[in-house]
Batch of 3 targets.
Target 1
Amino acid sequence: MQVNSSNSTDVSLYKVSMELDKEELGDLKFLCTDHLQAGKGIDNAQDLFRELQQQHLDIIPELLYRIQRFDLLILLGKRKADMKQLLQQPGNSKISNYRVLLYNISKEINGEELGNIKFILQVAKRKLQDMKNFMDVCIDLERRGELGPDNLRVLLDVMTEIKRIDLKSKLERNQKVDDPAVEEPCPQQAGGSTTELQNNLNSIANLHRAVEALSMESTPAETSTISSVIATSSLPQHISTQTSSQSEARQTNSECIKVYKMDSKPLGICLILNNKSFPGTNLKERNGTDHDAERLTQVFGMLGFEIDKKDNLTVKCMEEVLLKYQKFDHNDCFVCCILSHGEKDAVLGTDGDLLHIKKIRSMFSGSQCCSLLEKPKVFFIQACQGHDSQRACQVMNHFPSSSSELETDAMTYSIPEDRDFLIGMSTVTDCVSYRTDKGSWFIQELCNCLEELCPQGQDLLTILTVVNQKVSEKHSSKKQIPEPRFTLSKKLIILPPSQRNLNS
């Protein structure tokens, strides 16, 4: 039986509409502002799609591309790469560059900055509650005739006042462009000619590609040696000499770093505290956390740990489990993964009470848990640490100066009781941590990297650096960067049991 193409399209659009949340609907409506009748009541994505179809506007794939819902493009028979290529061609975009610009800027404005913008613009009290994001502010300015494609002065002034010079520059660069292309990052020029800057960037890009290729085809030792040669030859001359000498110094120092003993069977306990439901509180269920727990069980089991998983514990119960392992006779290492809601420097039990990370750490210090003395104690915390959102910004590399050595006359051997800890936080202080129904960004990337890089002999701090990179590049506007905190005194290398047997 032949399927009506119109009916097939309607079914696909219905499936797309069911996947969009309230925030994403607001984003779509803003991007469509120039095509919608003022005051038109649109309560859901189906209403919006119906209105666009009535106007014969083939704009929905572009809308999904602009809000980064590339997964939904597939339902419409489109691909991200095809849409990118299409929109790079002049005249193909049906959403003005001005509208895309305001949308992208809105995603970089945090809650505090939004409040400052409202204050600067003297937004009436009756409108404060209606303006939930920067796009709402822009709509209000447009209605008052103070903002438009050819009139960005009010926004330029506001960005200057809140010290977002990066966004002011973006406005200035785009205010005369009429046909939008796919937005690409624009590096800040710190000095020197444009040609020199571009050459430097090209050299660094070539270096990254070469090292990436080497890491896949060579042994760790070969990669280290060859990549140093490539780096020296690829970088500009004034950087090359400095980099070469620093590389030699780092290689000499790395040879002196000892490695933790990691050859027991099992290596140790991997405790997983997985809090999903919080009955009797106003906290939402943590959908997707079971996927995190399953991946952690799989990966740490593969690495030779004995797994102990506990679900949905109150703070009191969490403390009881931790006290059990405080008194435990540990092997080479202890790993504890806590998946829950959180606040600043604390995680929540299912009863909504706080368990401070400082308290957890103190329970396993050298003076409180003797069997873990001089052994690595690893904690992975998947929990928000506040309510702020992180924003994208550019950073400059720097080389910190070395500190002077300390001397002591003490003759007895001792170590600080807080030594040999590694606490991998899913996000930085005061900021949120993202999770989907398929798991959290941090835990899923952590497990992927452990699974891939541990068999290669990479140490855990190097692996967590890769995790940082991957999580930080997850989304174009919603940003998250994990934060490892450590007092390790040796390299922590966790090889799978089969490889440990070969090396013994």
Note: The domain at 268-390+416-503 is CATH 3.40.50.1460 (Rossmann fold).
Target 2
Amino acid sequence: MGGGGGGQGDHQKQPLLGKLSEPGDSSSEKRLVKRTGTVWTAMAHIITAVIGSGVLSLAWSVAQLGWVGGPAVMLFFAGVTAVQSSLIADCYISHDPERGTVRNRSYMDAVRLYLGEKTRLFCGFFLNFSLFGTGVVYTLTSATSMRAIQKSNCYHREGHDAPCSAGGDGYYMLLFGLAQLVLSQIPDFHDMAWLSVFAAVMSFFYASVGLGLGVANVIANGVIKGRIGGIPLVSTTQKVWLVSQALGDIAFAYPFSLVLLEIEDTLRSPPPESETMKTASRASIVITTFFYLCCGCFGYAAFGDGTPGNILTGFGFYEPYWLIDLANLCIVLHLLGGYQVYSQPVFGFADRQFGGAEFEVRLLGTRRVNVFRLCFRTVYVAATTALAVWFPYFNQVIGLLGAFTFWPLGIHFPVEMYLVRNKVMPWTKQWLAIRAFSAVCLLISAFASVGSAVGVFGSETS
């Protein structure tokens, strides 16, 4: 699966960073780095970014929406993500009258070029906060999975009704943070294809375990549980809020727009990077949707109205305990790569803005060390780890923030950049279609945001 290592026969095809004008690059940053990525490495990055442990929570979402609504919503957001990724992929290369051909290496570079500096500053705050918050949430989630391993072993020894409790979340988070201190010294996306491939394999494994256990449970039950309209509730208002939360969970499980251009920047050409990126995006969305539908539907079929929030860490399954342990371990290993995928845009921005001198050290041979990179990334990882330890409910806050930022970062800015880049005239059929797409996504995002807010504040008061 690869192209990240650079094939011997492609040296004449590899564009160098210095050949095109690149926003934000200082002269010292225009390194002669060969872009060697292929559709396979791009798919690995995308799947690592998209398929998170949240795939195991989709059964709960299907339980709220029912047998018709659950699959329909997943397919709808798969289509939304396909359109969204296509719009952003086209923004990678632009043609500026003054600077010639410009390569937008990051989301913020593209926003600045097409929409201006003020807009870039506005979206930059939310973008970097969202990426930083994702790092905190991944740290928290890793501790949840490690704790689930401990509890699984306890249930196996003491029985499923035993009052098993597992502490030590802070200890698990520190272990995860220590691993990230090492991985964060990977220079950029060009050098981490191996990590994304590894993380993608881990995500396939634990998603397959969740799917397999769901199928086995359905066969053992001898009946498909669940209802057309989902879990019935006495209160209509409560049902509306839970449907809203489920809609938001599915909506926010798909997009990878925040890291799309960084991934595209690793691709070699020919063919054009945008074509390769679109192919990788479509293939990844198909694979992701297949796993989402299978895990969500079989999980609901297995548990019906009793579907847990997470079929592994929420102990929808208890046995075989060793398989549950292995699946949770794979979640942690996947999160190691996922953390890096969402941190590299921040690292890359800091490197381009501030650079830093390099010096040689003798450690297992002679290696070059960038002082600024070492210090900044160490502080960044320490900050995400510390916030996770001190504020363990941050995942609820970032979930609410993700609901509010889904439309502007995932839909609005990509749409506006596409309209500017392609000089789409107002009130044409294309303009109206794109505006209608944006408006529908805004309404859905607003509804999901309200549900997320109710869920956060409801959990805090309960």
Note: DSSP finds 13 helices and four strands in the chain.
Target 3
Amino acid sequence: MQDDGGRCGSFRDQDFPDGDRRRIRISPDLRPVPWLSQDDVQKMELLAEGEPVSKARVPAHGQVLRVELDPPAHQQPSPQRGSPEPGPGQRRPETHKERCQQGLCSLVKRTDDWFEVVAFHLDRVLGLNRSLPAVLRTFRSEILPYRYTSGTPRPVVWWDPGIQHLADEDNDQNSVPLSWAQYQKLLRLRCGGSAPCGGVQHSEWGRLALFDFLLQVSDRLDRCCCGFTPEPTELCVENRLHAKCGRAQELLLVHILVRKAEPSRLVFIDNAGRPQQSSSNLNFRLVEGIDEFPERAVSVLQSGCLESLLLRSLYSDRELWDSRGGAGGLRPLIRTLEHRGKILLQHVRDMKLQLKRDL
């Protein structure tokens, strides 16, 4: 961590000036955020500042809206000399779907899913780089239904056109169909990305398990909530999924996704997790069968830097920062993540697990 320019300094209130009212606060005069790439910043600006142009429902996801965004002015391409400018009220010729395929769309999610924005910053701070850019945003566009413009900020996640989905409409939230038993077999085989192994590199599962444990995301590796005691109001209980825990052949993984261009690397979506999950009820099933974790992410957890790094990263999203009470409001949440990190580090020591260095 010290090799990164001493970025693990503790931050004081004056390091987070209230007067900076930009939606995305990243600039040379602020503390650097080297874990956010230029592409990340551009997508965050698109999500935070882009004007809604069109919308579409997402099949089987009633509370999620796919919204096309017109890029902010500084991201607009310069018009070619001699090319006619579109007249007032003229629409661009592409359809909503075509514009989404150009990377100009977002998923606007439920207000309760705000933790997904924290998850994006955690992913980058840990050096995992597997989740999609996300911001918190309040919409005021007439294009959107009233409940999306009522003043409560919502998480907005970049819609990645390159993700590979299964053709089965009932199972399109996977690139690779896997049951729990098949997943555990893959872990034992230590697959290197070959076709019989589903194409995913073995080291990817350690990244996913670490990320999901810190966030307590069950709706991926453990959608039936078999590894902890769920509340009666949990969807896994209401939908009677929890009753399947004794029938291993019926336990299916969801949101196991890759990009068509990178089938050996996972993409993490739907990362809202459980910020309030008690430390006495953590889901250790998420790390079952995992024999290695990413060295860099573990080093961040060991360094004691997580609070400083996450605060600096979260400050870049003004709406999230303001709506969650700034540094004072976010510190308890971050300390919950730190505590889970300490529990995970003890698991690594107890099980004598390997640390995998990125090549």
Note: The radius of gyration is 21 Å.
